[in-house]
Protein: SDR family oxidoreductase
Amino acid sequence: MNRLVKGKKVMITGASSGIGQYLAIHVARQGGVPILIARSGERLHIISEKIEETFGVSCYWYKADLSNDAEWKDVIDRICYEHGSLDALINNAGMAVFDLVSEAKWQDIDRMLSVNVKSLFRATHQLLPHFLQQGNGHIVNIASQAGKMATPKSAVYAATKHAVIGFTNGLRMEVEKDGIFVTSVNLGPVRTNFFQQADPSGNYEKAVDRFMLDPNHVALKIVDSLFTKQREINLPVWMDSGSKVYSLAPVLMEKAMGRQFNKK
Structure:
C-alpha cells in the first residue's frame, strides 16, 4: 500500500480498459482521486461509478480522442480549470498496428504517432507548468521494451516508444531539481485488448501468450511507485535483460533471436 497516493489527483489516459482501468482501481483503492480519459465515454462512466461505489472516493472522467490534438488540448484545459492543480499524470494511452513499413497504411502510421507520441507530449507540456508552480508532481510515461529493441513489423511502433523513452529521460533531468518525479514504464506484451488492433490475425498473441504480463500486476507496480524516485519500471525482468544485451551486441542478438523477432 502506497500511503503517498491518498488524497492525490491522478490523471490517467487510456483508462477505459486494460492497464489504464487497473491503474484507476489501484489509485482509488489507495485513497487517491482518479481522473480518467479515453475515447469511450460509456466505459468511463461505468468504471467511474463502480470505483466511487466500491472505494468511496471521487472519480472523474472525460471523453477525448487523443489523436485529435485540438480536442485533446481543450479537454486538458477543462480538467485544469475544473480541478486546479493535479498531482500526477500517467500517460498510458497507446496503440499499434503491426505491419511491414512497405505495406503499412499512412493513416495507421499517423495515428500511432499522434496517440503514442504527440498526445503524450501535449499532456506533459500543458500540465508541467502546474507541477513546477506547486513544486511537486509525478509524470509516468508508459513506453515499451520495443522502445529499446525494435523488431520486424513494429518499426513505427518501436519508433514511437523510442521517442517516449528519449523524451522521458531528457525531461527527468530537466525537472529533478524542481521536486518532480519522471518515470518510464517499459513493458513486454501485456494481456489486454491491445493486440486486437495491433495484430488482428492473432498470430503474435498466440506466439507470446505464455510470456504475457498481467495488467493488474503491472498497474499495481506503477501505483506503488507513485511519488517516489523511480527512474524506470521494466517488466518482465528477463526481457529487460535481453534489451540490455541487445544494446551491447545488436548484430549477435538479431542473428540469435531472428526467428523469435519475426513471429508477428
User: Anything to note?
Assistant: The beta strands are 9-13, 33-38, 60-63, 88-91, 137-142, 180-187, 232-235. The chain has one domain: 3-261. The chain has a mean pLDDT of 92.
